[in-house]
Amino acid sequence: MNFIAIKMLLGDRAKYIGIVIGLTFASFLLTWPSALFTGVMKRTFSFVTDVGLPDIWVVDPQAQYIEDVKPLRDTEVLRVRGTEGVQWAVGLYKGMLRARMDDGTFQNCTVVGLDDATLIGGPPKMVAGELADLRQADSVIVDETGARGKLAKKQPDGRRVPLKIGDTLELNDHRCIVVGICRITQTFQNVPVLYTTYSRATTIAPQERKLLSFVIAKAKPGTDVSALCQRIGRLGLRAYTPYEFKKLTFWYFLKYTGMPINFLTVVTLGFIVGIAISGQTFYNFTLDNLRYFGTLKAMGTTNRKLLRMISLQAAEVGAIGYGLGVGAASAWGGFLSGRTQIAFSLPWPLLLVSASAVLVICIGAAAVSIRKVMKLEPAMVFRS
Amino acid sequence: MIATQLPPAPAKTETPNQVSVRCANVTKTFGAGRTAVRALRGVNLDIRAGELMMLVGPSGCGKTTLISVIAGVLSRDGGDCSVLGRDYIRMSTDATTEFRGRNIGFVFQAWNLIPALTAVENVSVPLIINGIRRRDAIARAAEILFKVGFDDRMMQSFPPDLSGGQQQRIAIARSLVHDPRLIVCDEPTSALDSETGHKVVQLMRTLAVGKDRALLVVTHDARIFEFADRIAQMDDGVIKRVFDSPEEMKVEG
Ligand SMILES: Nc1ncnc2c1ncn2[C@@H]1O[C@H](COP(=O)(O)OP(=O)(O)OP(=O)(O)O)[C@@H](O)[C@H]1O
Ligand SMILES: [Mg+2]
Predict the structure, then answer these.
(1) ipTM score here?
(2) B36 confidence band (pLDDT: 50, 70, 90)
(3) Is the Cβ pair A299, B116 closer than 8 Å?
(4) To which H or E segment does residue A233 belong?
(5) Do A300 and A332 share a structural domain?
(6) Where are the domains of chain B?
(7) Does residue B233 line the site of ligand 1, with CB under 6 A?
């Protein structure tokens, strides 16, 4: 019966294309905002992703997310280092400082200060120069996107020339020299990121009593990390694994920003469009073919087999519509990612989620049709 | 022609005394109360194996209702009706459906061919329904279509591209392909011009009538009466008379 079902489906070209386009649209409208949302959410914790080395992030107990820096005393590094099970612990500075541009305007930058001795917490990839060059006096490393974009030097003729090694820039009235260009995961704030040493960063930064943003630590091999986090917690600090710290940030953004609402609105829209277009067209297709379903029933096709036929038809259009929709979304996302700073991320769990959503649409569309065909009286075949 | 080994035909129900269909006092009412229509008011009719029985009568007298009940696509309200020794009332919906699939062939006034399937695929449908593999079903369907005068090219045509007479020949092939023991046809010629209609019934007469098989044909068309073995005349929900030959009806009707 399967080939009959498929041929019936393909037999009505216009409706078939209509159903597939509807599902393609729906898949796209489900996948696209979800991928953007995932991309944006990933940016909120990109800093933790980029600092890959530590097992543990130690912050003030009041900190609600990664950017919510509540400075610690410098001595906390030593206290964490002294906790049983800690292999190493270093401090990390993260703050927002103003860079003065050649034309006199200011540009906010994230400044990351790395432990002077070890330089732990540096960028994941250097494009030019070496991380170790930070040991030179007044040196900073600039992220590629910032160097090309917001920090690029404006020429008199209006052209913008990317910042390169050897260029200088003024941070909070301190002159700094660019010694390297790095590549980092795009951040949520989307401002340039500068790397320097902890001592230099704290010198440049406006003087406050406490300047230590994070203590990052590594557990000794074989140590139970969550137990270690609890031990650090007893020092009056709060310790998270990278995963927990990301999750904390993720939930903070979910709860306290308008993003989820916008996102849900678009996704719901996609869902409704999907059901409206594809469901309606699929049902119309079934209605058009009711006479033939009735004929098949009269000629001995049981309801169970008819159910299988309609499910197969729905599955066919669902699979094709999903493939086209997700394909279009990822092609478009890939195209834009290479050219813009769009936050696009399509990990496989998301593919699974949008596949399930399309499945729900198909089941919904098929269910109405199946009901109609199940209730069909085979006697209708003799009435014209 | 393509020679194929078909799986053994499904077991058929035994018919006592060579009677394929026996209806006694069958009633059917549509609706209820003031608007109720008593379509069958006590039908008595026997159809024998091997005969072509025609059912005639004025419009609205209940012919379609009666063949629907006999074919098992409509349930009766009262009376007895055994078809090939079975009574639908004692069977589940699925069992009735499967019984139809194995034992009954249908020819419809509007042909009801699936437009997205080729002629030969349409004819193979009853075999597919009975679980026969597609390749074998197509081969068997091609044999039957060949008998009704189709060549290879026509077999691969889609019904909407064919004439009414050709479509009805596909429908006849489809009603025969699974070797059913009862074939029901409702007005098989009414959508055809008289010459084509005549040819189509002739074809049915030669191909479909067999020792074990009964044909019940509802018609208005007096020009095809000559192909009947017996003719049942229906009026107002009952069988008024059964003529034992077309000649008898000509003389007396
Ligand atoms: N599903 C139904 N609901 C209500 N009334 C019906 C239904 N089917 C048939 N009838 C009525 O039952 C009566 C018999 O109808 P039926 O179709 O059996 O007549 P017929 O002899 O086949 O007529 P025709 O020659 O016009 O096809 C008619 O009055 C018809 O209106
Ligand atoms: Mg009728």
Answers:
(1) 0.90
(2) very high
(3) no
(4) helix A225-233
(5) yes
(6) 19-252
(7) no
Q: pTM (2 decimals)?
A: 0.78
- In angstroms, the CA B125 to CA B117 distance is 10
> Which stretches in chain A have pLDDT values below 50?
none
Does residue A246 sit within a domain?
no
* Cα-to-centroid distance, B60 and ligand 2 (Å): 7
The number of beta carbons lying within 10 Å of the beta carbon of residue A148 is 16
Question: Which protein residues have a CB closer than 5 Å to ligand 2 (ion)?
Answer: B 64
* Domain boundary, last residue among A240, A272, A300: A240
Q: What is the distance in angstroms between the Cα of B252 and the nearest Cα belonging to chain A?
A: 30
The domain boundary, picked from A185, A209, A240, lies at A240
| Enclosing domain of residue A33 | 2-43+258-383
Q: Are residue A218 and residue A343 in the same domain, yes or no?
A: no
Residues on B contacting A at a C-beta cutoff of 8 Å: 64, 67-68, 71, 73-74, 93-94, 97-102, 104, 106, 108-110, 112, 114-117, 121, 125-126, 128-130, 134, 186
Taking only the tens place, the pLDDT of each residue in B65-108 is: 999 999 999 999 999 999 999 999 999 999 999 999 999 999 98
Is residue A328 packed enough to be buried (19+ CB in 10 Å), middle (13-18) or exposed (0-12)? middle
Question: Residue B230's closest CA among B67, B55, B53?
Answer: B53
Q: Which superfamily is assigned to B19-252 in CATH?
A: P-loop containing nucleotide triphosphate hydrolases (3.40.50.300)
